[in-house]
Design a protein that fits this description.
Layout: E1 12-16, E2 19-23, E3 26-28, E4 32-39, E5 48-56, E6 59-64, H1 70-79, E7 86-93, E8 99-114, E9 127-133, E10 136-139
Length: 140
């Protein structure tokens, strides 16, 4: 019998270059796909298929807006051509806060940033969103 356990989707944080940059409200886009290459040999009546290039979708991170400017600074540096791509990790925790799963994401950079929508008198938390292009994802 396996001791695998199901994990909730509500406790995770992001590390950039090994530094915890915060607990995020949501993250989406942790996905990959592989092209299918079709070909035929000589007089084959059927099409043969083989695996092609792998690509990864962009990660979209949303977090409560704070005075910390780490994500903004990274985006600004990228726009100005000052900074290299960075490695990051998505760390999923169990209900006790113990690390259970880690996805290492390689050579990411911000392709878009969206500041909070502000409404006077509203009671919601302001949220910022950043979208990261990534080149590789590995489960640790």
């Amino acid at each position: 019998m396996s001791d695998d356990k199901q994990l909730g989707n509500y406790r995770f944080f992001i590390e950039i270059d090994g530094v915890n940059v915060g607990y995020f409200k949501s993250m989406s886009g942790l996905a990959s796909k592989q092209d299918v290459i079709e070909h035929r040999y000589g007089g084959d009546r059927s099409v043969r298929r083989k695996p092609g290039r792998v690509s990864f979708t962009n990660l979209v991170l949303e977090m409560g807006f704070t005075t910390d400017s780490t994500l903004w600074d990274w985006r600004l540096d990228t726009v100005q051509g000052k900074r290299e791509k960075r490695d990051l990790s998505v760390v999923i925790l169990d209900h006790d806060g113990t690390e259970q799963v880690r996805y290492n994401v390689f050579r990411g950079w911000p392709v878009s940033w969206e500041g909070p929508s502000l409404v006077a008198g509203a009671g919601e938390t302001a949220v910022e969103k950043i979208e990261l292009a990534v080149e590789d994802v590995q489960r640790a």
